[in-house]
């Protein structure tokens, strides 16, 4: 029943959007009614999504999608998250978020009616494209032709609270660029004033904040769930999320800087189109199954072709309008050697090139296979040694850009900064003498600390410290950059200075980790609701009385006959100690211990960026 | 500064950055790209060099041998040729005989492949795309594979 409601409302919503799109050309409808229809279509799409969720919650196996991806003895949270834990449901989620954005956009006041309607019309166009995609190739409301009592179950690796919220947040980021895209295109047609830039700023910041949060959640999930001890693998799907993120970062910065320069406006429109194109392209790569990765659901060629078609329509349409619409007046960029605008321009160039480098590395294997019929894989080392060197000058610029002046060549308090940099370099050099010297480690630490120091100097010397919301809004760019600095320190330490120890142990053995005694207490098996758990129990630092118990092991899911690893992580502020329980031979167990220094700084840094993104949204 | 000079400067700068990016990419694709083979595609010259490559195939039935809690031997096959692999570490959760796996590593002496990394995809029905076509050709294709 709920499936029928879901399908009908989905189709009906597409119909309304078709009506909205046609109304632009054939007949006039009143503004009020237009908005009403936009909201109605959003609500119908949401109704469709919630009917699917409802089918999952009550385990309605007459729905083929539920039958394929759910099981009645799953905990409730995973029944709900199962809604988007599969291709069809996740595409419906995509469409729902698209219509939520239209819904909220229709409520914006202080905006010219024609402009708002044009934006919503473009949204309606996108809604139709993706709606047809769902109905024609990935319908989540198909009826199960067999009568069954039980479903096939959700992939156990997806049964995790972190992963339950990761896709909606990530999608909120991806799809948010649809509204930025629509605003930019509408801005091109409606070239009267620059009001649209301020609107685009807020929405692009919202998308970027969601995207940051979504990527970080996925990364954190990979860190503790996949049991490899790393948090970033340059997996194609990770790269795909990183591309719109970097392009979106360039977009947010350009929008902050723009003061009516025509060249910059064109660039902003270009970036807006690029961001959404990259989002759609990413969806195509993942869903088509061209790239195999952790995230690919069942691949189907027709789906891939359809999304490729959507990609060409969106990108082609976007860039065509971009090329055809001439700018009206020219207000040139003021590119003196050292000022805010030139720092921004250089940073933007760097970011776009970094994006293209990632894109190239991600699709390079496909190109080679087509041309050469040879299969290759491009691994992490490629990305590490191309993307990072490209980004480093950008990071350096970033540390001083916020205090550069708009017009002149002067930097305020330049002596302070020079002194700060010299002291810092010496300090890091001395410190790296005591640790093992490592060039990347040195560069990374220096950069991270320097960004934090420069931002702090800037805050202290330029503003009066007050604890009010307004103050935080003003120093917000510096806060965001401090977050980046922290993340750089975390990333550098956890990748350059990590340590890996292997042990072969019997129950009751004691062993040493970073000078602390650890006891391998025992192995325990327990039965949980939908899995059996095997846990190795460790006591960390048994000589001191601060006992920390760590559990590392595996879960066995009988429904899908799968095993997942559950790493045991002891979080300390300056390092994570990461236990992985390996295989067993007779009574001996293999245990791997990873020491990841300063991982917490990455999450803290990202959290600061997200918070600062939220503060930025509130600022006009 | 005149507008033209600015534009020239901007273009020059962009070209310099793009040029260095291209250099980086070219250098790194030569160094950091590993070729992907099925067991029967591997030839003598690959076995002779200690280049890092990836091999995709199935773990041969009854070939898995646990030497200690962290040292494993098994064979990777595509039903034409099979290759003996040793691996020291923790195998992925989905690693099983008869299932698809991708291994990365290099050939040691005696034509034994020393795996530095083993990937088993997070789908029990996963088959490496590379050997999917070969399997279809030989009629070994099992419908349940995706």
Short description:
The complex is a heterodimer of chains A (620) and B (146). Chain A has helices at residues 2-23, 31-57, 64-69, 76-81, 87-105, 113-137, 161-189, 195-225, 236-257, 262-288, 301-324, 340-372, 380-400, 414-434, 439-462, 469-474, 476-496, 599-618, and strands at residues 375-378, 499-505, 510-513, 516-527, 532-540, 548-557, 562-566, 568-572, 575-585, 588-597.
Task: Give the termini separation of chain B.
Answer: 62 Å
Helix content of chain A: 55-70%
Gyration radius of chain B, rounded = 22 Å
* Helix/sheet category of chain B: alpha+beta
Number of helices of chain B: 3
Descriptive overview:
- The complex is a heterodimer of chains A (620) and B (146).
- With 620 residues, chain A is of the alpha+beta class.
- Among the domains of chain A are: 1-156; 499-600, no CATH class.
- Helices cover 62% and strands 12% of the residues of chain A.
- Chain A has helices spanning 2-23, 31-57, 64-69, 76-81, 87-105, 113-137, 161-189, 195-225, 236-257, 262-288, 301-324, 340-372, 380-400, 414-434, 439-462, 469-474, 476-496, 599-618, and strands at residues 375-378, 499-505, 510-513, 516-527, 532-540, 548-557, 562-566, 568-572, 575-585, 588-597.
- In chain A, the strands form 2 sheets. In chain A, strands 3-4-5-6-7 form a 5-stranded antiparallel β-sheet, with no helix packed on it. In chain A, strands 2-10-9-8 form a 4-stranded antiparallel β-sheet, with helices on one face.
- Chain A is globular and about 80 Å long.
- The model of chain A is unreliable at 294-298 (pLDDT under 50).
- With 146 residues, chain B is of the alpha+beta class.
- Chain B has 2 domains: 1-33; 36-138, OB fold (Dihydrolipoamide Acetyltransferase, E2P) (Beta Barrel), CATH 2.40.50.140.
- Chain B has 3 helices and 7 strands, in the order αβαββββββα.
- Chain B has a 5-stranded mixed beta barrel.
- In chain B, β1 (33-37), α2 (44-48) and β2 (53-59) form a beta-alpha-beta unit.
- The termini of chain B are far apart.
- The model of chain B is unreliable at 122-128 and 138-146 (pLDDT under 50).
- β1 of chain A pairs antiparallel with β1 of chain B.
């Amino acid at each position: 029943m709920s499936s029928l409601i879901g399908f009908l409302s989905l189709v009906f919503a597409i119909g309304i959007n078709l009506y909205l799109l046609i109304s632009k050309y054939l007949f006039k409808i009143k503004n009020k009614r237009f908005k009403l229809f936009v909201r109605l279509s959003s609500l119908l799409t949401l109704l469709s999504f919630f009917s699917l969720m409802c089918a999952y919650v009550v385990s309605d196996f007459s729905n083929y999608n539920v039958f394929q991806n759910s099981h009645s003895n799953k905990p409730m949270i995973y029944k709900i998250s199962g809604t988007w834990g599969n291709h069809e449901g996740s595409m419906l989620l995509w469409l729902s978020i698209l219509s939520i954005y239209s819904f909220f956009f229709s409520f914006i006041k202080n905006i010219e009616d024609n402009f708002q309607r044009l934006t919503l019309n473009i949204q309606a166009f996108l809604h139709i494209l993706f709606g047809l995609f769902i109905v024609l190739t990935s319908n989540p409301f198909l009826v199960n032709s067999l009568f069954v009592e039980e479903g096939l179950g959700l992939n156990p690796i997806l049964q995790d609270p972190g992963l339950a919220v990761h896709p909606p947040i990530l999608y909120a980021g991806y799809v948010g660029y649809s509204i930025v895209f629509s605003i930019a295109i509408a801005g091109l047609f409606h070239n009267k004033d620059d009001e649209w830039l301020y609107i685009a700023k807020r929405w692009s910041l919202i998308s970027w904040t969601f995207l940051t949060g979504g990527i970080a959640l996925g990364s954190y999930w990979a860190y503790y769930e996949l049991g490899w001890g790393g948090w970033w693998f340059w997996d194609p799907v990770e790269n795909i999320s990183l591309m719109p993120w970097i392009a979106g970062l360039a977009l947010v910065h350009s929008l902050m800087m723009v003061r009516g320069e025509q060249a910059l406006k064109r660039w902003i429109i270009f970036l807006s189109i690029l961001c959404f194109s990259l989002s759609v392209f990413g969806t195509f790569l993942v869903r088509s199954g061209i790239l195999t990765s952790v995230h690919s659901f069942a691949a189907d060629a027709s789906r891939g072709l359809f999304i490729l078609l959507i990609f060409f329509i969106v990108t082609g349409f976007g860039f065509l309008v971009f090329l055809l619409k001439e700018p009206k007046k020219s207000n040139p960029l003021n590119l003196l050697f050292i000022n805010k605008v030139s720092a921004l321009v250089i940073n933007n160039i760097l970011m776009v090139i970094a994006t293209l480098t990632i894109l190239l590395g991600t699709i390079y294997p496909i190109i080679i296979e087509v041309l050469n019929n040879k299969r290759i894989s491009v691994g992490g080392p490629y990305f590490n040694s191309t993307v990072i060197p490209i980004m480093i000058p950008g990071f350096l610029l970033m540390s001083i850009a916020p205090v550069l002046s708009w017009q002149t060549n002067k930097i305020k308090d330049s002596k302070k900064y020079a002194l700060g940099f010299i002291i810092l370099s010496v300090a890091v050099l001395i410190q790296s003498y005591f640790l093992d010297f490592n060039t990347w480690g040195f560069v990374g630490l220096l950069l991270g600390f320097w960004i934090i120091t420069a931002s702090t100097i800037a805050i202290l010397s330029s503003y009066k410290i007050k604890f009010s919301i307004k103050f935080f809004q003003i120093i917000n760019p510096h806060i965001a950059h401090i977050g980046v600095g922290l993340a750089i320190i975390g990333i550098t330490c956890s990748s350059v200075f990590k340590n890996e120890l292997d042990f072969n142990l019997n129950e009751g053995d004691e062993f040493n980790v970073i000078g602390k005694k650890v006891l391998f207490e025992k192995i325990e098996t327990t039965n949980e609701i939908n899995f059996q758990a095997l846990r190795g129990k460790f006591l960390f630092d048994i000589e001191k009385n601060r006992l920390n118990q760590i559990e590392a092991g595996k879960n066995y899911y009988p429904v899908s006959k799968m095993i997942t690893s559950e790493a045991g992580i002891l979080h300390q502020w300056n390092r994570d100690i990461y236990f992985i329980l390996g295989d067993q031979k007779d009574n001996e167990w293999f245990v791997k211990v990873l020491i990841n220094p300063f991982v917490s700084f990455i999450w803290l840094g990202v959290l600061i960026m997200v918070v600062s993104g939220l503060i930025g949204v509130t600022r006009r | 500064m005149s507008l033209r000079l600015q534009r020239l400067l901007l273009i020059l700068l962009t070209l310099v950055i793009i040029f260095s990016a291209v250099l980086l990419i070219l250098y790194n694709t030569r160094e950091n790209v590993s070729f992907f083979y099925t067991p029967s595609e591997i030839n003598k010259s690959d076995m002779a060099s200690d280049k890092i490559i990836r091999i995709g195939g199935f773990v041969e039935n009854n070939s898995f041998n646990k030497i200690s809690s962290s040292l494993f031997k098994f064979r990777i096959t595509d039903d034409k040729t099979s290759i003996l692999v040793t691996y020291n570490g923790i195998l992925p959760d989905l690693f099983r005989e008869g299932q698809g796996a991708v291994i990365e590593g290099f050939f040691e002496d005696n034509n034994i492949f020393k795996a530095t990394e083993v990937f088993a995809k997070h789908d029990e029905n996963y088959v490496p795309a590379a050997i999917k076509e070969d399997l279809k050709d030989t009629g070994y294709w099992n419908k349940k594979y995706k």
